[in-house]
């Protein structure tokens, strides 16, 4: 039996601007937690306060004083704040994108020297206390890093950042340690619930950032397993490499390399796959959508494929029933901030949902994406996309083609909608542009929901034929 951890698990992908087909920077992630746990999509307006504000977590009583100016930002919070906000991903008004978090795990040796802090900052607070208060990706890393060093963190996490110039990945370990690495412009990375960052070059602050005193901490506590002591491999010093990693985590990274760097020959359980990779082609937003929606297609490990029952359930897939939402934060080049950023959101399971494009420059979000209920409620975005998947699940072979046809049509439709919005939006600015992008976002949301409502109707009708209460009468009777 493979030992299990208390997973709040996700899968992430980052693409540098020279690695993409159109010069976009992309940070993306599946948010995986519970099979039916709705998400909202909201827009917080710019606010100026006369006094400093205080953030207090409803999860673990973490508290932090906040600046008096709070920038506009988008987010995808939980349907309830009972266990924390978990705003998870969004853009701010300065064009900074952030996705938090990719859950990771610190090894016991490190935890013995620097244990997690029960009331330190956790995933649920990170977007809320960082994104509205920064103007660049580097500034966001510095702010979060300073919070972790002073207040500690209750978890080990990976956090994705981007602005119009660069993309970064940051990892925390123990109670107060962290590093960050800039993704090379011509590179990409896939991450799956395991410490990913490898060798840190402390002589290259343009490409790496780190916690104050992290080298001294490792040396004092004898944590570096490198025999020569000449390298500082963050993954090996701080991370884990146990049996649960090889069945739960590494296969997802392997599949990403199989899709984008097939010349690399690793096994699904290899612990040596590189963090930074180069693709065999320029990657588009559709490639990233395909990765987040994947479940080992074309291999024996596909849960709905043709492998043996043992193979089909051997590894944890990338897209699975516990996905709450999937997002791609795309920043296009040579565009004004409001038009450059697109928050592609797939509510529910990415493999069964559709990525809807929402321009960052909008001022509001559609009603169907706000105030979700914890149980099925018709008309709400999360539950609409979730229902379609639930209806397909029992009869994937028979009904999957109907779902795929709708997804394919929407991909084309949304690409056309983005192209048209770009043409119009380049002629506008200020409030006029913001109003236009808000209208575009509302229309895109309606297009997706209308298509899935029609699909649901067809699935209900078709599913009736699979009822065990059906009876086929003999023509001779």
Automatic annotation (TrEMBL):
**What does the UniProt keyword field contain?**
Dipeptidase, Hydrolase, Protease
The record's section on Pfam families has: Peptidase_C69
Q: What protein am I looking at?
A: Dipeptidase
Source taxon at top rank? Bacteria
Q: Does the keyword Glycoprotein apply?
A: no
Tell me which Gene Ontology terms the entry assigns under biological process: proteolysis
Q: Which residues form a coiled coil?
A: none
Origin organism of this chain?
Lentilactobacillus parafarraginis DSM 18390 = JCM 14109
Q: What class of enzyme is it?
A: hydrolase
Q: Which GO terms describe its molecular function?
A: cysteine-type exopeptidase activity; dipeptidase activity
PANTHER family, alphabetized: LD30995P, SECERNIN
Family affiliation = Belongs to the peptidase C69 family.
Kindly give the InterPro entries that the UniProt entry links to this protein: C69_dipept_A-like, Peptidase_C69
Please give the NCBIfam families that the UniProt record associates with this protein. Answer: C69_fam_dipept
**UniProt catalytic activity:** an L-aminoacyl-L-amino acid + H2O = 2 an L-alpha-amino acid
Q: So what EC number does this one have? A: 3.4.-.-
